[in-house]
Amino acid sequence: MSEMRFFVDPVRCIGCKACMQGCSECATHRGKSMIHLEYIERGTSTQTAPMVCMHCDLPTCAAVCPADAIKRTEDGIVQSSQAPRCIGCSNCVNACPFGVPRYYPEIDQMLKCDMCYDRTSLGKKPMCASVCPSEALFYGTLEEFQSRRQGTPSNTFQFGAQTITTKVFLVLPAGDVGLNMDVLSHMDARFEPDAFDHLDPFAHLEPLPMGEHL
Amino acid sequence: MLKPSGAALPPRHDPDPVMVPVMDVTLDRRGLIAGVVFSLLLTLAVYLGSQRFHGFDGALAGYCFATVFALFGVVYRYAVWLQRPATRVYWKRGWELFWQPGQRLRNTLLFFKMGWEKMLEQRFIRKRSRDRWLAHQLIFWGCVIAILITFPLTFGWLRFESDFTHPSNYLVVLFGQRLEFFTFPARGVIGWLFMHGLNIAAVLCLAGISLAVGRRVKDEAEISTQRFDNDIMPLVLLFAVSVTGMMLTVSNMFLEGKFYYWITTTHAVTVMLWLLYLPFGKFFHIFQRIANVGVWFYKAAGANGPQAECARCGEAYTSAMQREDLKAILPDLGFDYRNNEQAVDNWQNLCPGCRRKLMTLNQFRVTGKEFM
Amino acid sequence: MARPPLSREEFLQEFGPTLHYAPPGGFRTVDDDAALVDTHCCFCGQQCGIRLKVKDNAVVGFEPRYEFPFNKGKLCPKGIKRYLQGSHPDRLLHPMRRTPDGYERVTWDEALSETVSKIREIQAKYGKDSFAMLSGVSLTNEKSYLVGKFARVALQTANLDYNGRLCMVSAGAGNKKAYGIDRASNAWDDIPRAKVIFAIGTNIAECFPITTDYIWRARDAGARLIYADPRMVPMARTADLFLPLRIGSDSALLMGMLHVIIRDGLTDEAFIQAHTVGFDDVRAAVSHATPEWAAEITGVPAEKIELAARWYGEAETGFILHARGLEHQTKGVENVMSCANLALATGKIGREGCGHSTITGQGNGQGGREHGHKCDQLPGNRDITNPEHRRYICDVWGLPEEELPGKGLTAQEILNAIHAGEIKGLLSICFNPLVSLPDANFNREALNKLEHYSVIDFFLSETAEHADIVLPGSLHEEDEGTSTSGEGRVIKINAPVTPPGEARRDWEILLDIAQRLGRGRYFQYGSTQEIFNELRLASRGGTADYSGITWEKVVNNQGVFWPCPQVTERGNTTMHIEELDSVHPGTPRLFEGGQFYFPDGRARFNVVKWRESAEVVDDEYPVWFTTGRVVSQYLSGTQTRRIGPLVDQFPHPKLELHPRLARQLGIQTDDWVTVTSRRGQVTIQANVVNTIRPDTVFMAYHWGGRQSANLLTQRALDPISKIPEFKVSTCQVRLATPEEIVEGENARRLSAVTEKNLPAGYGLNARRQELRR
Question: Which range of residues forms the domain containing residue C101?
């Protein structure tokens, strides 16, 4: 059987947070979720951004850790911080290009997604990809993915001068290989009131009537 | 108030490594020097503390050698560890902030407070899990008691002698000085405690080990991530040390000294293995944990100074000091997140939240759909 | 006078809602010995398979149930955290009697004696029908059947109705009128085979989340998604065509689409000829309904309506999905029939990849509406006014036919009758009308007028606070039985734990009351399976025929789709349950070969004429008001408002309004706003989002008290289905005054209390922040 892989397809995400709730149910997480899910900007869209650890081939988080607390195992999984070592400095939180690690002040430790190592190392699916209703998070072989899904899974990301390759795949439109992580086109005056009028799905509607109660 | 440091750290400069003849291994020069210096200092302390080996117990020489070697190993590894780019930042900044003028007394008090909370009470472990904290505390205090008793004994700093005036009493000899005021009956409470101090330590350790092993056997997450050399080996070593140590007492008290020689040898071997494992294995986290106190200073100072704002959303998300320090070490580590675009000239100027959102935003951008 | 005896603060302290976070015994890293029990989620009509972790007679966690074919392990947040409703600090553990200053603990004997004597007293004084019963469809099929029989045979009242009245009755009535049967036309497996999916008035992502995967599978195979909704809900965001229609204008949109389909010759004439009746009348009725006409009413551009019609008409296969958005209207049945007209005119029904289904909102919304706890219905979806049907059921029950009551009042009508003093006593189970029925102020007045009210519940819901006698019943995981999912699949609910304290299983309580009312001989059941077996016999020959289904078959086949009738001569005539056969494999897809459930086998076209909703905007109330759900809450929230992590996702209702409207009113996100309708007013915080029509505001309805959306909605009912018009009202919106803000903040403070003794290191505030983002 070919290797099991993890695919992320944020466009499908319905923002239900089943992944977060499922993640927090994992026996080792004690009610905490390692996956992130947040609205991009609720004012303009219901689009949410799900974020699991991408499991970089050369993890920035591990490199900036002063305490050697983050290890990448041979199977390509970047493990969460080792409890005895993590000194809670948040270097990894600030350096990860994907914004994945989270610092928990109450336990003075960073915890991050380890692709449910307790499950995946036994051949089970990770919790988030098990429960995700829309398969925005999908765990299976590449063949399985290709047999039922469109799009090209890609695991190469360009951050300015830095290329990062990951174990986890992002689904891109058919034919696209590699994603340039652009910031500038997503900077458009986010906090001005008219900024998103051009994105208004209701822009065609008549102006509202003016009245005593309006 | 503790203030962050704005100045850039001095550039790194790595001394040439030292070739070990025949073995085709290189050693770090700083680590080597520090290790040798500390080992020599300890040897000197043993020499002086035992009144030029007058009070040195030859039977314990093996333990003493192993301890000196373990010290060399720990210091060597610590020195190498401190040269890692990220560690070096915290080490340098930590001392810089600690010695900040006008803060030194307060910092020293804080140092002890933090030392208590983080190193001895280990409050952070209790927050993680009570069971784990209990196991850890039992093992920790077991080891501390054992070290406090055995190290002075093997170094020849401490011994017990019969009190001439009351033959049933013992008295403490420290650095060759007979502490006449500190005599105690051999069969009294203090005597019992001294006699069985190591057994008490062993019992604490064994209790802690059984809790830890119980967890490692049953906990799914631990089972999946633990490695024998890193996670099981330390428990096995501690177990062996504790059990063989207690067997000495058993042999002495109940078996009329049967197997005593055999047991002492085994015990010596296990203790030496433990000492030699100290610098390389999991136990090194004991020494790394001290950095936690430095990090506390770093964070406290950072919070009092300018904050780094996200280049996209404008939210402050960390201290400016930490962001700049991070950006400074990333090239050393082989990462280059710089960008030609002016507005965001470095990916590292974004908050974690925006970085997460940008993956979705960029995926959406390439799909070319109308509404997000 | 059934007034609540305690202040809000006192209720909060004593009965919650308490936000429950940690499983019994705290988070355990080590969960050895926990048994795994296969069962289902109780929090919507999809009835997802789930595996519960059980230890020491308590549910302590969940595992995905990958083997269950519907969801294959997938779950929404409600399913994941559903286990936290067990071992809950608010759980009612013993019977209680209301006193002027609170509730006192009584024995079961005292509680039931009082209930029974009140029933007798009220019925003797005012007549049998003056004592009503309200029920709900979170109950299993067995309990639904039992409640129907109990009310008619033990209580002997005609006035029994259920909260499905607020849910699927429009679809039920519309389906029966068009197809002669009330069930989703297909198993969901047909959705991925459709080439076009038309979703109207349904927020699939939040109310039926697992269905999103079926739709995406269709889209991956090249299907187009058309989405009609006044809000750009999560699934609409990615749709190929979004039709942002004005609330209450659904039938105009559907008529416009049918007009285009007929005009452009996209009808399936052969299918219409062979399998339907009445197309000519419908053709005539939509002849004037041009896309431009529809655009005028709906606010959707005419070209988009044309495009939608062409996409649906031209596609080889197509699936229509709808839910409360178009059903919760005074035109609910008409809207459903309009959808059926589309499906029938294009022949997109009864074959692979083609169908027309409602999305059931409630757990057992499908099964619960088949077995006789609707006011006009007998088991097997039989009609209580049909003499033949009455006779058959009386035969099964061994009841003299004259003792079987006739048709009673519907849910809202029962409350109206209570308000009018015609109904004096009430027994309710599994229903929280004070939160879920429209015009909450009116219903509160009604409840206060009751002479006696007994409630069977597991938590003290807002409605139960008015009860004289509180009888602690059972949770979903404390009783076994079957339920029927939205796609018509009968599934098995298992009971990993027993009711805690003195709480009892619901059916045992009903049996006890029946016994005390002297009707025990009709209720000789030793287990729920015996109830199911009687249900099989009672449903035999009805449209909802379960007679060929056994519990074993349900378990072995991972569910059975009804109709599952008898296939043998003996099975069709016997009155002995053990002689029923179970050969029939079930019916995943209805209407194959164009066979519909009318005597002539033909489907019916139904003429729908455009008319306005009961309330339309005017100068005084110029903004449309609509309600709906959020993904983390379920119905009136009696269960889900007590589960901490779910509440944290969406802790309080917010008013969604478009930036254009907001600017006109000077409102910004998180401003406190007051919404006023002709019925009442609510002060909540605003959420300014451009995902809603500028002329419409939206509020989720899961909260009670002063946070209840149903303070604003109206009691206008659909003339056929009697469903209230929750989805269309009008209102004023303005910034709240300082006094109103204080009140709003007060209501928020009193909405829930956080459980004490959370585990060390849980980091509650950070967890809340993460879930809210």
Answer: 96-167+364-579
